[in-house]
Amino acid sequence: MKLTVLGFMGGYPAKGVGTTAYLLESEAFHLLIDVGSNAVLALEKHLDPKQLDAVIVTHYHPDHIADMGVLQHVFQLKDPDKTLPIYGHVESDLHGLRESAYTTAVDYTGNEPIMIGPFRIAFLKTLHPVPCYALEIIEITTGKKLVFTADSGYLADFVSFSKDADVLLADTNFFQGQEGHKVHMTSYEVGSIAKEANVKKLILTHLPPSVEWEKLLGEAKEAAGDVVVVQLAEKDLQIII
Ligand SMILES: [Zn+2]
Ligand SMILES: [Zn+2]
User: Fold this and answer.
1) TM spans, by residue (predicted)?
2) Domain tally, the chain
3) Range of the domain at 214
4) Is 41 helix (H, G, I), strand (E, B) or coil?
5) What pLDDT is recorded for position 212?
6) Residues lining ligand 1 (ion), CB within 5 A?
7) Ligand 1: distance of its center to the CA of 171 in Å?
8) How many Cα neighbours within 13 Å face the side chain of 208?
9) What secondary structure letter does DSSP report for 97?
10) Staple partner for 6: which of 17, 42, 85, 223, CB 3.0–4.6 Å?
11) How confident is the model over 5-63, as pLDDT tens digits?
12) How far is the centre of ligand 1, averaged over its atoms, from the C-alpha of 128 (Å)?
């Protein structure tokens, strides 16, 4: 499967980079994970947004759903001929925003895995001020595993959830020394999870717009041991998993 990072900024878009959005492709299936600010424009560089087959949303904070309305406009106004399923949980009043003329809200409970096209997706509820779910995504044909922490403070359960993942995409909003935060993780925490879970590659994401990222990268590498650590210093990063 191919992961394309469309936006990785935490909280708000900055430096020409949007907030959380990833395109995950397997064969001819195109899944959008979160719909952050600038997602539709960034997506357009890779494929016609109308080629999307499904969307999954981890939670309803603005930096993860900012482009939801304009994505719905794409399906409504641009040769309307198909309906886009948008998967999300129902533990928030905002689940109604997924329903429109040419998009359908599909609910997940977080309790059991679901199938979306070629992917099997399991969930872990995160530590965050609003209900939010981390995703374990398995490509059925290859068995390859991608884990996305979504937004979360540190949870010991991330180690088992991420076990032997090919790629761990982890919320790294804070520097070492701020461990135990209840909203986001630190470079040290995500590096430690990657090492204990024996993941092959750690990607730092949800980066703080206003700070020096090299320091975050260095701290994560130190905690991660032999794990390859990638920092999203440029947008449109593509990784084959
Ligand atoms: Zn959030
Ligand atoms: Zn966020």
Assistant:
1) none
2) 1
3) 2-240
4) helix
5) 80
6) 61, 151
7) 10
8) 17
9) G
10) 42
11) 999 999 999 988 999 999 999 999 999 999 999 999 999 999 999 999 999 999 999 99
12) 7
Query: Any idea which ligand is nearest the CA of 63?
Result: 2
Backbone angles phi, psi at 22, to 5 degrees: -135, 140
Report the CATH number at residue 210: 3.60.15.10
Exposure string of 176-209, with b = 16+ CB inside 10 Å and e = fewer, is beeeeeeebbbbbbbbbbbbbbebbbbbbbbbbe
Distance 80 CA to ligand 1 centre (A): 32
Residue 172, sorted as left (phi over 0), alpha (psi -120 to 50) or beta, turns out to be beta
Closest CA to 187 of 219, 232, 224: 219
Report which bound ligand comes closest to the CA of 13.
2
76-102 tens-digit pLDDT: 999 889 999 999 998 987 778 998 989
Which 3 state secondary structure label does DSSP give 125? Answer: strand
Distance CA 67, CA 61 (A): 12
Distance from Cα 61 to the centre of ligand 2, integer Å: 6
Pinpoint the alpha helices (H) of 39-110: 39-44, 62-65, 68-77
For residue 199, which of 235, 236, 148 has the smallest C-alpha distance? 148
CB 149 within 8 A of CB 171: yes
Ligand 2 centre distance from Cα of residue 77 (Å): 29
- Ligand of minimum distance to the alpha carbon of 128: 1
